[in-house]
C-alpha cells in the first residue's frame, strides 16, 4: 500500500519540518519533503495535524499468558495502537512468568498474529520472579527478550541483584528495575502524606522507592553496566538519577503520565483506580518529575499500563490491586499537562515517547526519516475531548482519568505502512 500525508508538521527529537509531505511506500518512508507529486492509494490531509515517530512504550502489562480476563495481547496491543504506540515492552509478571524461551515465543507469536504493535518481551531476572535464582539471560536474549525485569517486585537481595548485573554485563542485557523496599512497605497502599492520614489509609513513604534506587545506582556504578529505573515517582528519585548521570553512571529512567498529571489528592474520595505502585505523590514531587522530564534527567515516558477487571477494582481502595491502564491517555495527558503548560515542546514529545525509548533498548527507529520503517503517529494537538468509558479500547477500564477533559488526540497510527488505528474508521 502507498500513503501520502499532505501538508503536515513532522516532528523529530532533533527538529521540526513544517508544511511537509510524507510519502509511504509499502513498509517504508520513501520521502519526506514539501510538494511530493506521487499519487497514492490513500491520501491524508495533514493540515493542522502533527506527525511523530511511532511511540515506544518501555513498560506495560499485557497480562497474557494466564491473566487474560484483565487483558490479552490482542486487546492490549489494539489499545496501544489507539494510543499512538507502534511498539511496547511487556513485563514478565504473567502466568506463567516470562522466564523461559517458550513463553517468549508464545508472546511474539500472539503479537505477530494480532498485528497491532510490535511486542518486545521483557524477561524475568529471576526464575518465577522468585528473587533467588537467575534466569538464563543469553538463552532468553536469543529467544527475543528485549530486556530483563522482575517488575511488580524488586530484586530484594543484594547478592542476587549483583549477580544479575554481572550476568547482564557479560551478555549486554539491559536491566529494568522496579525499585521498592518491599519488606519495609508493610501494609501501605497510598503515598504516605497528609492525604493518606485524611483518608485513613496506610502510607508508603518515599524512602521505600528511593533507598532501593540509591542501592541499584551504586551497584551499577560498581559493576559498570547501564541500568534503567522504572516508574520514578518522587523528587528524591529524580535527584538521585540526576546526580548519578552527572558523575557518569549509565543510568536511564522513565516516569508515567500519572506522576506528572495528578497527585495523591485523587485518593481522598477512595477511588480504587487512583491506587497505583509507586503511589501518586504530592505536588512537590509532581513538579520535580516535570522538571526532570524537561531537563532530560527522566529519559522516557512509559505508561505502566496495568489492566485489572472491574470486579478486582470493585473491592475498594484498600483491597483492590495496584495499577491503572495508560496506553490511550499517555499522549493526551502529555499534551494537557506538559505541552500546554509550556514545560516541554513538540520535539521533547518525540524524544520522550519515541527516540529515547528506542535508544535505551539499543534499537534503531524513533525518527521520521527517509528510508526508515513507516512507524508514524498522526495527532491533533488542539482537539479537546472527555475521556469516557465507552471509548476505551483496552479490555480494562481502571483509569482515574475517566470523565476528565483532555487535550491532544491520536488520529491515526501507522505501523510498517499499515493503519493500526484510524479514529475516523473506528
Ligand atoms: Zn513496577
From TrEMBL:
Xref: SUPFAM superfamilies: Composite domain of metallo-dependent hydrolases (SSF51338), Metallo-dependent hydrolases (SSF51556)
Manner of cofactor binding, per the entry note: Binds 2 Zn(2+) ions per subunit.
E.C. number(s) listed in UniProt: 3.5.2.3
GO molecular function: allantoinase activity; dihydroorotase activity; zinc ion binding
Keyword Zinc: yes
The keyword Nucleotidyltransferase appears for this protein: no
Keyword entries, A-Z: Hydrolase, Metal-binding, Pyrimidine biosynthesis, Zinc
Pfam family name, one: DHOase
Binding site for Zn(2+) 1: 59, 61, 151, 304
Cofactor dependency: Zn(2+)
PROSITE patterns, per the entry: DIHYDROOROTASE_2
Catalytic center residues: 304
Record's catalysed reaction(s): (S)-dihydroorotate + H2O = N-carbamoyl-L-aspartate + H(+)
Domain of life: Bacteria
Gene Ontology CC entries for this record: cytoplasm
Segments forming domain Dihydroorotase catalytic: 50-235
Family the entry assigns: Belongs to the metallo-dependent hydrolases superfamily. DHOase family. Class I DHOase subfamily.
Role noted for this protein: Catalyzes the reversible cyclization of carbamoyl aspartate to dihydroorotate.
Name the UniProt record assigns to this protein: Dihydroorotase
Organism: Christensenella massiliensis
Species lineage: Bacteria, Bacillati, Bacillota, Clostridia, Christensenellales
